[in-house]
Each structure stands twice: as C-alpha cells, then as structure tokens.
Request: fold
Amino acid sequence: MAESFEELRHLLGVVSETGTLLTVGHNRRMAPAVIEAQRMLAKHRARPVSPPWRYNRDCVGPADLPGEGRTMALLRVNDDFWSWKKWAFAAGALMNEMTHFADLAGAFMTAPPVRVTTTGEKAGNHVITIEYGDSSIATIFATVFGSFGYPKELVEIYHNGSVIVIDHVCEIRTAGIEGEPFQTAFPIPGGHGEGIEGYYRAIHAAQEEAIAKGDNSILPQQPDKGHYALLTDLVGSVRDGRQPVCSAEVAAVSTAVVLRAAESEALGGVPVAISPEDYSV
Reply:
C-alpha cells in the first residue's frame, strides 16, 4: 500500500477526507480456501468441542491454560527469484511480497499486531515473527531460492486442540473440529482435477510442455487465489456504498507490519513494536 509511514498516512488521510473507496490487492483473503478455513476457525473458536477420539493421557481433560485461546500460525513461502521482474530486486521480497502474507496471517487473528521480529535478509531469505495483542503468534518463513516445481504456499493454523492446513489455496486439511472433514479440495484449472494432487499434476504437465516447446516461461495453472473475487468485491462496494473487504483501513495494518519488519531486519533482528498509530491517520 505504501513504501513509508509518511506515504501510508498520506493515503489514509486522503481516503478519510474524500470518502474514496480504495482496495489493496491482498487477494489471498478472498480465495475460496481461505474463506472456508476462516469459517472453520471461527466455528471452533465459538464452540471448541474436543472430538471423542482425542488422546487424553491420565484423563487430564481441559487444563485451562492461557495458550488454549491463542492462535499459532505458520506460513511457508517457497518462491523462485528467476520469476521476478527486474524492478523487484531493489526492495526485495520482504517489501514486495510479504505484505500478502502479513495480511493473510492477520485474517486469522482476532487481536491487533503489537510486535514484529525479522531475521535474514530483505532480498529473499527471511523469517518474520508477528506477535498479537492476545499473545497469538504468526511466523512467516520465506525463501526466494526455492523451486516452482513444488507448491508455493502452505499455511498451518493451530488453536485450542484443532489444526487447519491450507495447502497452496487448493486444499484444506483439518483435525479436531467437530463435524468438519479431514480434506476439502478445490478445483485446479485446466482439467487437472482438484486439491494438492491435482496441482501436482498441473506442475508436471507444465514442466513437460515447457520441455517439449523449449519455452521456460510456462508455469502451471494456479488455483483460485481470490483475484477475481477481490475485484468483484470492489465493484460491489462501489454499487452498495460500503467499504471493500480489503479496504484502506484493513490493508494499512499489514503495510505497517511489513514496514516495521523491514526496520527489524535492518537492525539485525531486533524486535520492533507496532502501535495503532502506525496504521491510522
């Protein structure tokens, strides 16, 4: 949304003063798999029922530990810098790409971010740990020295005896949530089927096509990452006079997280506080 806090506050001020509807392309929060995973987590938060098969050593039962009500999230990003446009190298993946994943992590949290720690380098290898006001934690493990021969994104969410895994936004696997299936698969374009197995087929088909044609610009067709739904939501917000899902107010939070994450990286991994003033006018 912005490359500095000065620019961020200016944008927020313009939106506030003019009533302009603004959306930021954090499309993943509009992906069908993410929306479904949010529903599952909200359901479990509201009524955390342990399944009858849950292992219970010595009949311990509910321990009433404070951590039960917190959320732990791990986001793994496997990128390949060969796919980058040249301009992207200046700020690196920390600024250009991690805002997507800071926003995605925040989409599963109920408290605001309060602190961020970044180790690694802004160009392409880094681990970002975001702490939230209720002591929930999200860790983004990212590298740009991976391979698109393997799925790019994996999100794991843990909360009060439950697990939700979103595999490359085309499959959800879950455990510990009453009435929810272990596996929910979403379609892969191009007739490759659905779920992560379908995406594996899409990867191999793209590789074979690239070799046969001598064209290494071919990538596998991607699952629905929410691009169309994000734009549709913006159109709907204009028609209905409401704020879009990824409004300036929402996007400013993840922008502030990444700006503070960059500060932490520059300081050699020192934790940096995040305050509401960072993402408000």
Observations:
- The radius of gyration is 20 Å.
